Amino acid sequence: MSSKLLRGTFILTLGTIISKVLGLFYVIPFDAIVGKEGTTLYQYSYVPYTIFISIATAGIPLAISKFISKYNALEEYAVGRRLFKSGLIVMLLTGFVSFLILFFSAPVLGEMVIQDDDQVTKVEDVITVIRAVSFALIIVPFMSLIRGFFQGHQSMGPSAVSQVVEQIVRIVFLLAGAYIVLFVMNGKVASAVSVATFAAFVGAIGSLLVLFWYWYKRKPHLDELLLHDKGTVEISLKNMYKEILLYAAPFVFVGIANPLFQFIDQITFNRAMVEIGLAKESDFAFSALNFYSHKLVIIPVSLATAFSLTLVPNITRTFIEDDKRGLHRQLNQTFQVLLFLTLPAVVGMSLLAEPVYTAFYGHDLFGTEVLRAYSPVAILFALYSVTAAILQGIDEQRFTILSLLVGLLIKLSLNIPLIKLMQTEGAIVATALGYGAAIMINLFVIKTYASYSFKLVFRRILLITAFTALMFVGAFGTYRLLILFLSPESVWQSLVIIISCAVIGVGIYGFLGIKSKLVNRLFGQKVDRVMQKLHLKG
């Protein structure tokens, strides 16, 4: 069972990574098809949709799988099947209600976003694209429940495959639909973006068909389990859903944090820019921040957070066993791994902002400056996710709500004044301050309730910072040398610059990490085995 669980976890992780990579790279052809005007409009619809979908589904697959796995272990298979049947109905209803709310609130959201007639984007276009994407809400919650059901039976393949298929179908429909509308039918940009946002619904249909196929193939085995049901547990649907909500709630709050910060930008950014006379620049500035740059900044966050969160189950175990020494060791390792991976990545992205932005979206000095300023905030995104997960591990997830609310209040209070003062960089600073406050609360709770000292982490931060500084010197020198004969305004030359600087930077950082034995302390004996296979160690 252990090897099966590890294999399943690997499959699900791989599916998630492939899905995220696809979700990043489709932006390049999409931007080429619809341009800045189209991507801005697309972003206006996707932020509210992401909030709705996060509330409706965040934590549901995990909560359902945890519930079913628990009762399957007790050989009470009928309990999980009963939850599944009733849950399908509940998810269809909640999905349809979510669809209606988003569909009919589209005019209100459109009016909140578009503050001036001089803006490139029009209210009616925002309304149209929000309504187009809202249809996906009918299916996605229903689909997430099925994924959770399979995961509860230690079957990760259906979730992984359906995620990848959903993303592929969505992207193909999105790109093909936008291209046909604009270049075959000679339609408007707003129509092309509406088709692109409706692709979320089409992708969900593709995923659902995959899950139905798995259900058809696996139903005989699942029905056979019911024959071995003990039937000794009686639990009401009310208590079932109460347990599910307790499992899912912390993941919901963590899942909606970033979309809520983006939503605050969406409803305040244009207003502030209009008030300082920058209505014409407002839409594209917002797009550079919340779409183009955000897509890139999330890359190091996703990788570092995923690696760090693999340590959280061990944190939960040591906390339950009241193993203080083991708990503190796990916390030390989690924070150090996070910073070891994230800090050099964001410093490198900030240094290479111009070629990175050019490689993905074409050369744009304004976008470059936004990415350079926004990159360091990635550390805060990663720290918030990990500290919130640790709070769940030590059973203090209630403070996640408090820290998120404080962070959002700071962002909401400071966003307009800072945008008026610093324009786009003001929104970045407000986000950093909001996340910073939320993280400080989480760290205080961890220190208090886990009796944890940050002394070792602080010392390691100094060491990691020193290594990052030396890496920066090497990468910066390489960058300055390369731009003497290569141009960061060219896509292909930018790729050469990025790869060359990355090789030098990773080489320096990796060498320092290995020589200092920090890599061994963080990643264990696996590092020695890898080095031996690569003939880097005798």
From TrEMBL:
Q: Which CDD domains match?
A: MATE_SpoVB_like
Source taxon at top rank: Bacteria
Provide one Gene Ontology cellular component.
plasma membrane
The alphabetical list of record keywords is: Cell membrane, Membrane, Transmembrane, Transmembrane helix
Where is this gene product found? Cell membrane
Q: Name one Pfam family in it.
A: Polysacc_synt
Q: Looking at the keywords, is Kinase present?
A: no
Transmembrane region(s): 12-34, 46-68, 88-106, 126-146, 167-185, 191-216, 244-264, 296-315, 335-353, 373-394, 401-421, 427-449, 461-485, 491-512
Q: How does it sit in the membrane?
A: Multi-pass membrane protein
Q: What is this protein called?
A: Polysaccharide biosynthesis protein
Q: Which organism is it from?
A: Niallia endozanthoxylica
Per the UniProt record, the lineage of the source organism begins with: Bacteria, Bacillati, Bacillota, Bacilli, Bacillales
